[in-house]
Every structure is written in C-alpha cells, then in structure tokens.
Amino acid sequence: MANYDSRNHSNQYHQNNRRPRQEEPSVQVEVGQRFPLTIKRMGINGEGIGYYKRMAVFIPGALTGEEVVAEVTSVAQRFLRAKIHRIRLASPHRVDPRDSYADEVGGFELEHLAYPEQLKFKRDIVSQSLERYQPVGFKHFDLRPTLGMADPYGYRNKAQFQVRRNADGQIEAGLYAERSHDLVDLPTCSVQMPVVMTVMRAVVAMLQDLDMPIYDEEQGSGIVKTLVVRAAANTNDVQLVFITNSQKLPRKRELLERIAKELPQVTSVMQNVNPGKTSLVWGEETKHLAGAEAITEKLDGLSFKLSARAFLQLNPAQMEVLYAEAKKALDLQPGETVVDAYSGIGTIGLSLADVAEEVRGMDVIPEAVDDANANAEANGITNAHYEVGTAEDLLPKWIMTGFHPDAIVVDPPRTGLDDTLIDTILAVRPPKLVYVSCNPSTLAKDLVALVHDYHVDYIQSVDMMPQTARCEAVVKLTRRQ
Ligand code: SAH
Question: Which atom of ligand 1 is found nearest the CA of 343?
C-alpha cells in the first residue's frame, strides 16, 4: 500500500550536479573528524548541505546560512554525512522545536525552522527537483508560493506507533530513531491531533495494567506489535487498531471493556493480524473487535467511510485545500468525463462527480475500492465507479472499450507514475491532466516525459505535513495543440 510515512530514499546524492568531477582526487576524511562548515542550501530531506573541499556534506538539523562545526558520521565516495557538533552562527529563522525528540525520529526534520521559512523551503524543493531532472521549459514554470496552515501543529489524524517492552518491563510506544530500529517512546507529539495522543497513551497504559504480551522482535514471541489510532476531524469518530503477531489477542474481553468504559471517544476497534518478522506493518487479515467496522470522515460536504487499511491524507484541514486545488486545476465542464487514478477511497473523484458526466477510478487496494464505491452510494452519487487494479493496467483497458476521458487526475504514491501509464496518457492525450504529487523528485522525473505533449500551467505546492520535509504539489497540465 502507498506509504506516505516512508522516508524519501531518493537517489539525490548520486544525481547531485555539484559533485566533484570524476578526475578529481577524492578527499581524505575520517568518521569523527570535525571542521567548520557553512550551510549553502537545504536538501530534499530537510538536511543542511555544505561543501568540504568541494565534497557535499549532508548535515541534518542545520539551516541555510548557518556556520557550524560539523562532525563526520559517515563517508561515501561522493558525499559525507555529518552531525552538528556546535553551531557557531545560527540562522535568524532557527526556532526551538516543541518536541524534545525532534532530532531523533523521522517526521520532525524542520521543527527547528520558522514556519514561513518551511513554506519557502517546500517551494524550493520543487524547484531543486526540476533543476535536477530538467523537463523542457522548467525554467519558465510558474511555481506558486506554498499554501500552508494558520496553525501548523496538532493536525495529524493518525498515529501508527510500534510498541515494545523495555528492559524495565515498561511498555513504550513510538517511532524508530532514524536509520535504526531503536524505539523512541513518544508520550507527547505536537503534530498529532490531541485526541489521537490521548487514546494512544491511554491504550498503552491499559496494555501495561493488563500485562499484555508485547511482541518481541528478537525472540519472535509476544502478541501486540503496533497500535494505530485514526481520528476523523469532522465527525469525531476514532478508530483503534491492534496489529498483532497472531490471531489470538489475550485478555480481549477485559481490554475491550476498559476501552468502552474509559475511552468513549473510540467508535471502532479492530485487529489486524500480521504474523512473524516482516518489514510490513500491516497484515492481510483485519478482524472486527468492537464498535463500528469503519469510521466516517466528512470532507467538502461528502461523507467518506474509512476502513482500517484505506489510505487517507494525514492532514484533514489541508486535505480540503489540496482537493480544492486539484478541482480548480482540472476545471471540469459539464459533460466531461474524468479518471481518478490512484483513487484511494475516492476523495478526489467523488468531489468532481457533481460536475462530471462520469467519474472512473482505480486503486490497487480492494478495501479502498470497496470504500470508494460505498462512498459514492452513501453520497447518492450514481455517475462514479471504482475498480480494483493498477492505473497502468486499467486505463488502457478502459480505452480499448471506447472510454475516452476528457480529463485525468493522477495522485500516485511516492514512486510516481509507471512508465506504461505515462505512455498511455501520451497516446490518449486527454485535454486536461492534473498531477497531484507527494514527491517532487518523481514528479520532476515524470514531467520530463509529459511536457512533450503537455504544457505546465503552474505548480501549486501545498503543505500537508508541517514540521516535516514532505511536500505535496498540484500541477495543472494542458494538452499542447
Ligand atoms: N487519491 C487518494 C489516494 C492517494 S494515495 C487520496 O487523495 O486520498 C495513492 C494511492 O495509490 C493509494 O491508495 C495506493 O493504494 C494506490 N496505488 C498504488 N499503486 C497503484 C497503482 N499502480 N495503480 C493504482 N493505484 C495505486
């Protein structure tokens, strides 16, 4: 499933234009070595970048314009990683992060940067990505200022925390430290919706009280692996999911009784079974434990049913901004047909159904597609239909059967568009194309092919994830004559 949480493992380092030329001797540096460094710019993961003897140095937590003493943490052939040993000259935009662990776990890369500067950074990331892939005409693209939040905290509707019992027998719940498997317990988290953290910590306390068997990765023993809490901002529904190592959930009755009594805000309790050692958080099987099987979120006057595994953007307030931008960019006229590719639970397509003649969408997750069709029905929408499958498979099939969309909106995961899909789009050439991207690198790469047939009218970045380096963008493309 698309994972909006995964870190960006883009190969930016290898494509960095400023790397030293091959014939230059590589610099002799050792781990632990310190040197003064001026931060020239910030890279796509929010880290500061400076140059030591013309070698790029990536240094998390450092801001543009700062002068630091860097301490080398790893040496690669063409770049170095370092940490801040000392800041000699701080940026005027540096602020104190609210979360004490902000520099330890992923997802808080920019919490030390004043918010207006975060917004500028995100637009700059789009610009840097274009610079790297150079789609024809990129210098003239209209990059609009990033749309941000009035209050860039407490926005996140979902927490997915690993649980572990520490050496003292205490149950901890949180995220892994970066580039490691060390769990960092998160008693508070400034970007989460308060209700999410209240439920999360209360459940952790219950697990402790009931002495529940917690999964132990090394031994392969124990049961509870992960806790997921998702809240619907506009209906107050809250879903709690226990991801477990086995079908069995010991003390289930006591646990559910306590949840019902002490956490009345929880409207749905589910269990997802994910046995054994695996890098995937979610397993295939989801069981109903208590309350409703799904929660409902309301967006732009429409209701959306959310089952446990269905993807939903993490920031409900900015979701409305993002979808309004997608709608504006599509500029659908009555009578036009539209494809909602990578549709999730149908959020984008269903919001277009009042104008469109027909909406067709697809997603690879069957539950999400079921939700999308159920959402159409629940909202009295009869001209939208969703199918299970990949965009690259289904779009050509639909076209073979005579369906020629006037508009396509794509909202792919971080990997971007499949080449086959790009080829299909370029063969079918719908007049209107909107690309909703959650990864400027793959966006820039995909634009290289798309600009042959499409003009980029503008790129509107939207900040869906304040305090992180993540950047979303809506691109309006119009078919060339
Ligand atoms: N438009 C939705 C979902 C976007 S997330 C929203 O705004 O909420 C991207 C979605 O693409 C995920 O739901 C994921 O399951 C789906 N997906 C991943 N690969 C796909 C593919 N090859 N074809 C179609 N959908 C895919």
Answer: 1
